[in-house]
Amino acid sequence: MTLSDMSSGVRVLDKASLLLSALEAEPASLATLVAKTGLPRPTAHRLAVAMERLDLLTRDTAGRFGLGPRLADMSAGARQNSLLLAAEPVLERLHELTGVSAQLHQRRGVRRVCVLSAGSQDDSRQTGPIGAASPMRYGSIAQVLLAWEDPDQLYEGLREARFNGATLSGVRRQGWAESVGDDGPGSASIAAPVRGLDNRVVGAVALSGPVAQLSRNPGRRYAGHVIDAAILIGERLSR
Fold first, then answer.
1. Which domain of life is it from (predicted)?
2. 165 φψ region: left (φ > 0), alpha (ψ -120 to 50), beta (else)
3. What's the fold here for domain 76-237?
């Protein structure tokens, strides 16, 4: 690709975009960048060094340029925004159908975080506001976020968990998890996995609230609703 193949109307942006495109597949030396982009060597060098200062590019020990860490952060942010946009109307509909507080949770290291919520309950301790974090040691949400992890992550996650490998095997088999009392006395929840474009679990849809509302077997009544919502969010992500 050369400058003649693309134009935003701002030449410096077009040149920077050329450099990024040339580095999509693998790192490259300055000479390779010049050959791939058709840019003059001084121009390619000046732009590459400037983009390195901004963490848009990086350099390895051989002096080759590669895509920088800031691009990964931007990409993660874009995926996060896409997930929230895809999930918001689905959670609202799930809450309307069930009358129960519906949330989207994601794993952040050793904790699970509520990133989106629809509906509310009188006892906020049982639902948690957006941004609320809880340990990955217990509850249906933690089970769903851990059940499909790779073996090493699975082993580490089970070391301090209140559930075991057999529990997670059951979660994988049925496609959802439920818990009663794990998030506090009288609480109940049911969760199902949301899958991204690569089929990896990127979050968990959950219904949570008092046992009086969800019963002591929330899966019996709500599993179909939660699974459908999780699938729909995944489908919206792929559009």
1. Bacteria
2. alpha
3. Beta-Lactamase (3.30.450)
Sign of the C-alpha dihedral computed for residues 131, 132, 135 and 139 taken in this order: negative
Q: What are phi and psi of 106, to 5 degrees?
A: -130, 155
Mean pLDDT, the chain, as a whole number? 87
Sign of CA dihedral 227, 230, 234, 239: positive
pLDDT grade for 80, boundaries at 50, 70 and 90? low
Nearest to 13 by CA among 24, 3, 5: 3
Residue 88 has pLDDT above 70, yes or no: yes
Task: Please tell me the distance from the alpha carbon of residue 98 to that of residue 195, in angstroms, as a whole number.
Answer: 22
Name the residue among 166, 184, 75, 76 with its Cα closest to residue 126.
Answer: 184
- Mention every residue, 6+ apart, whose C-beta is less than 8 A from residue 195: 201, 202, 230, 234
**Distances, alpha carbon 68 to alpha carbons 18, 26, 33, 50, 72, in Å:** 15, 12, 16, 12, 7
pTM of structure? 0.68
CATH number belonging to the domain at 3-67, selected among 2.30.30.30, 1.10.10.10, 3.40.50.1110, 1.10.10.60? 1.10.10.10
Q: Given a cut of 70, is residue 229 above it in pLDDT? A: yes
